[in-house]
């Protein structure tokens, strides 16, 4: 699993270290915040487009080959970003990195479901979560230090070195645990998946720059219609690209929704916080990164603990604890101002970083545990697709709310850009807290499953079929 762990760590490092670089990218390329956010949204858009196809690809392609291909994409993308002369070139390299992460993320969880016994799924997901959450622990800090010492380009150079290490470990150690069944290829489903998810995320992301223009509305309508066709087709063909029957299992559907909401809350906060520290409180990127380190360390430790606690206590109680803590921490973010002592920020950030893993890890373990082993790859892909698409949408919504808050501040006569950014950030924090309330509401529908689930067998009359 070492190669996969490093690969997923690299993907999450890339996803969570970009927020702190956005002010520098805006200055270097002369772009708006709405354009700069495509470094975050474009990455997640690529993940969201690729993810629905991974479960199907694993049924056709040897997992080791697929992972090595994805890491090669990441390495090439990192090199392109390091030397990018313009923002479009930078974004192109960034999207290649998103394709890689979209492949390795569900592959890791599918491998876990093949390697570990059912009664250890919580602990196994806790270890995987620790690997994933170690990236946000050090990502902003390393990014801030590299920007302070060199420039934002050094971050992508670091990604390239880590990608090489992941390629070596995967080539040496990874053993494919996933069987290949080689079902029929439904090209129409692949096209519908790419168009539907792509148009939906792109439409939402463009709202901050273009408003509800005809182009934006058109993208949203096309995305929703194509996704509806895609879902219908998956449920009515013999060899679906993604087995959406998993969403018909309430014990899987409910925690999957909770994971998507909590992940969206996390990304909205992580998009706003580093920028508020720099543009609202006037701190350097290096200091901002260091201030995010304590919360990140605690988050990683709580992720591991939450995975192990799930095996003993189940999901519901842990979700309640995590939801309450996240709301308290989010409320403290409202008290942050231009001249607020950093101690208040540290307290708010640490409380949120304690609460989120109790929601994420327990919900994820509950969701995967509710499915039979042969649906694990599809279930993992569904969950990760929902997370990344919802996360991209949440980041775009946070950007829109940030702009709305800044506009309202200026409308009442405000002239301090730093205070305007702080006021705008509070709109985004309110959105994140609303998502946690949704998680809390769904937690009452959680059902604990202690037995390995089985699909209901379908009776087939062989003689009649032969005739």
TrEMBL record:
Keywords: Membrane, Transmembrane, Transmembrane helix. Its main location: membrane. It is found in: Cell membrane. Pfam families: MFS_1 (PF07690). Gene3D superfamilies: MFS general substrate transporter like domains, Multidrug resistance protein D. It is a multi-pass membrane protein. SUPFAM superfamilies: MFS general substrate transporter (SSF103473). Residues 1-450 form the Major facilitator superfamily (MFS) profile domain. This is MFS transporter. It comes from Bifidobacterium imperatoris. The lineage of its organism: Bacteria, Bacillati, Actinomycetota, Actinomycetes, Bifidobacteriales.
């Amino acid at each position: 699993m070492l190669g996969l762990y490093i690969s997923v760590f690299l993907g999450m490092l890339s996803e969570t270290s970009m927020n702190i670089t956005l002010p520098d990218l805006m200055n270097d390329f002369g772009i708006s915040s709405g354009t700069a956010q495509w470094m975050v949204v474009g990455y997640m858009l690529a993940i969201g487009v690729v993810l629905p196809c991974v479960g199907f690809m694993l049924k056709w392609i040897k997992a080791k080959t697929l992972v090595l291909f994805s890491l090669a994409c990441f390495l090439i993308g990192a090199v392109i970003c390091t030397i990018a002369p313009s923002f479009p070139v930078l974004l192109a390299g960034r999207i290649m990195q998103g394709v890689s992460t979209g492949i390795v993320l569900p592959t890791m969880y599918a491998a876990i479901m093949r390697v570990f016994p059912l009664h250890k799924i919580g602990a196994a997901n806790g270890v995987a979560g620790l690997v994933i959450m170690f990236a946000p622990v050090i990502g902003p800090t390393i990014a801030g230090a590299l920007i302070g010492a060199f420039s934002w380009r050094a971050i992508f150079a670091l990604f390239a070195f880590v990608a090489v290490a992941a390629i070596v470990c995967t080539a040496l150690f990874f053993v494919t645990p996933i069987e290949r069944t080689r079902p029929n290829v439904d090209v129409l489903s692949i096209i519908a998946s790419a168009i539907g998810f792509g148009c939906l995320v792109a439409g939402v992301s463009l709202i901050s720059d273009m408003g509800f223009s005809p182009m934006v509305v058109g993208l949203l309508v096309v995305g929703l219609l194509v996704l509806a066709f895609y879902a219908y087709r998956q449920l009515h063909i013999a060899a679906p690209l993604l087995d959406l029957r998993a969403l018909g299992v309430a014990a899987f559907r409910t925690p999957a929704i909770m994971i998507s909401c909590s992940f969206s809350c996390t990304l909205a906060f992580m998009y706003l916080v580093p920028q508020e520290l720099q543009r609202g409180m006037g701190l350097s990127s290096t200091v901002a990164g260091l201030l995010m380190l304590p919360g990140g360390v605690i988050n990683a430790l709580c992720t591991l603990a939450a995975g192990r606690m799930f095996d003993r206590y189940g999901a519901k109680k842990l979700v309640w604890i995590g939801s309450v803590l996240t709301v308290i921490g989010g409320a403290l973010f409202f008290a942050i101002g231009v001249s607020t002592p950093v101690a208040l920020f540290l307290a708010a950030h640490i409380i949120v970083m304690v609460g989120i893993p109790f929601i994420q890890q327990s919900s994820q373990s509950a969701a995967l545990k509710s499915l039979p082993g042969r649906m694990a790859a599809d279930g993992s892909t569904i969950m990760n697709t929902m997370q990344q698409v919802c996360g991209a949408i949440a980041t775009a919504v946070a950007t829109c709310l940030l702009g709305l808050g800044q506009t309202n501040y200026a409308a009442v006569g405000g002239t301090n850009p730093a205070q305007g950014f702080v006021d705008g950030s509070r709109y985004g924090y309110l959105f994140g807290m609303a998502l946690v309330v949704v998680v809390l509401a769904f937690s009452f529908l959680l059902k604990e499953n202690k037995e390995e689930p089985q699909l209901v067998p379908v009776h087939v009359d062989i003689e009649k079929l032969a005739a």
